[in-house]
Model the fold of this input.
Amino acid sequence: MLLVAEEMRQTRRFADPRDDDDDDDAPRRAIKDGNFIVESVLATNLPMGPGIPTKAELFGGLNARKGNEVSKDDLSNDLEALLNTGLFANVDANVTPKGKNGYAVEFVFREKIWPNVQTFKVQGAAVLPPSIEREVLTTVRKQGQCTVRVLATMKNIIEGYYTSKGITFGTISHFDGMETGDVVAHVIEGEITRVKAVFLDDQMQPITRGRTHPRVIQREHNFKVGQLYNVEDAKTALRDIFLLQLFDNVQVVPRPDDRDQSKVQVDIVLRERPVKTAESELEWSIAPGEGGKPDLVSIKPGGSVFFEHRNLDGWGRQLYGSVSTANFLQPQDDLGFKLEYHHPYCLGDGDPDKTNFKTSVFNSRKLSPVFAGGPLMEEVPSIWVDRAGAKATVTQNFTRQSKATASVIVEEVTTRDESGAVIGAGSKQGAQGQLSSDGPPTTHSGNGTDRLMFFQGGLTRDTTHFVNGTPVGARDIFNVAQSVGLGSAFPIYNRFSAECTRFIQLRPEHKKRNTPPPVLVTHAKAGTIVGNCASYDAFTLGGPHSCRGYNVGELGAARSFLEYAAEIRVPIPKLDTHAFAFWERCTDLGSSASVPGNPTEYYRRAGSGTSMGAGIKLGPVRAEYATDGNQANGNWFVRFGERF
Done:
């Protein structure tokens, strides 16, 4: 509400409601002598417009409200309150009978008019630029005499600026100086006087302290005593505190300081998740036996065990572990495990890059697409790649999405066939159906097992953001791996790749609908291996994240490669999603022959390919039709997540 300090001439006029009492004998509510019941409240000549207090705001604290019993003194106090807003030259009240038992109260307003505005200043502002004062003065000088509407214009410009900057507590408390034309607006901006973490129990009741150290919360938000409350800081705090995975309920609650209503206290309300979690899963293979009854295929139980501790010592350090096998009685046959420790802010709470350290011990098995047959070849025996070792990584986070990583890895790589036996070369069926084992070597050593030590580095620059559900912006990624010559066959190599993706918004988003804007996506990626090249490290071509329309590795395994793509995304209004059309190509740049054993030629793969197609995105699902340019055919695919 706009306030003015100057005293104002007041006139009040209202009739005695008891003088108009009728002779109706209907029963009435018992009221004190001289009082009356308000049946309705009217406002006449009340100025209206953006920034001007509404009828509800002006009348909310009055005595004269529908259904209330009021006296002449109450009505006089209401007139006093309305005049003290400083908005009106005069306010009258007319009381007339309405119905059998009530009276209508009509407040008649006369807008106050001051001299033209000559100067305009703002007091109490710390972040309001001088250009806003000049904008206000230029605007109001065109409106002539200073009235409530002119003051509302000033209010809208100034508070509009605060709102646009996220300073939600930035408001005008009152104006003065209107009588002289030298108007001064007094503002409050919402300076923070206290930031406190408030922990809740399972019943959402406050408790004295939680398991998490308060500094873990402090380093994840930007609120500081003496600075202004900003809604963007609140959004960032909610996001970053949730990402800690320590809490299942996070709220940022700003409220006026009890000692100074112009200041703000911020409570960060938190409910902690259980810090320890353990899960287990047991599997038994069952198949129909004699007579159709289900029987156990074997007595070998398989399954997995997972455990985690999310908050070691209350500092947000985390420990994860998982073990899986198809046979708990003989787990050495296919045991998979991972144990990981995560230490956030390893360089201290004041580190602006939020540097974290992560170390893990692992054993994993994946099917290798390097040793897969081409589309014109019979099915070939699969080769699995086992990796067991340890990895230590340091990550610097420049922004929420841009980061740099540095790792050192020591691992043993073993290639196995379907039976689990170590195998040193790929194989395929010969012309007479016999199995030929003269394929590409699977490891540096040639015997199926490598022991390696190497360094990894990564750099990601990501400025993308979502506009109505679709990404817009730029993303660049660079990865490199460098061996140190230690291990089997003493390999020396450098493996690097770089990719560049642009999401170009072609038209501004619709202001009234949530339909995503049209976007053009351009993408290019290239990489090469210098030095020794093991088959399991070769770049595989084809697949949903390489060249759509082909299976993973269907186009070849290369020492060097280049892929490029373009995709146009257009909105579908009624579905609030988009359809897309794309064109992609990838090539081995003639480098497949330099991969030991040339897996591309051995398995009769093309080495390059082109695809095009179209589809629609439905939530996280992409339904698309993609063509195989080498075979001149196409297929429908359902994918999850983004291509780029």
Remarks:
- The helical segments are 55-59, 72-83, 130-141, 148-164, 214-218, 231-243, 599-602.
